[in-house]
């Protein structure tokens, strides 16, 4: 019974959160990967960009001059291969405010904004909504996190997403946790020795 109680105590050892605000320290701009994926077709292609400041990120999508779709393999209003993303290989909780604006005359379905959590793309902007949108969000990621602007048609004007009030919290073991685990392992070894002697 004592062994079970001690094991439960070790398993329940607490963790504290290492909190960090804005784009500095572990979330400094140099730690993010900026990628333009997909192939733009048509005249005057302009790739998307990511511009960091200490307090915000401005993510702009790609755009080209074309008669139909400006993205090879793209489809209007559907997440496709042409996107600009900013991601970081870091696990923890990410919270932020976002504002979105598209210059696409056809509306926001041509430029979808969202998050990338552990490699999975999830839209935040409403493709059927207004050309200007905003919100707040928080996501827990185990391995990586980021944002993307996907130009589904890549024509008619690019979209811009601004990330602000960014905060990151990473769960890290408290120093007391390590001490408790070591003492628990030692106690379990002692109990095992006593049991052997008694037998």
Describe what this molecule looks like in 3D.
The structure is a single chain. The chain is α+β, with helices and mostly antiparallel strands and 199 residues long. It has helices at 2-11, 175-198; strands at 15-21, 33-37, 43-46, 49-52, 56-60, 63-65, 83-88, 92-102, 111-117, 120-123, 132-141, 145-151, 159-173. The strands form three sheets. Strands 1, 4, 5, 8, 11 and 13 form a six-stranded antiparallel β-sheet that branches. The longest helix is centred in the C-terminal third of the chain and has 24 residues, at 175-198. It starts with a helix and ends with a helix.
How are the secondary structure elements laid out?
Layout: H1 2-11, E1 15-21, E2 33-37, E3 43-46, E4 49-52, E5 56-60, E6 63-65, E7 83-88, E8 92-102, E9 111-117, E10 120-123, E11 132-141, E12 145-151, E13 159-173, H2 175-198
Antiparallel strand pairs: 1-13, 2-7, 3-6, 4-5, 5-13, 7-12, 8-11, 8-13, 9-10, 9-12
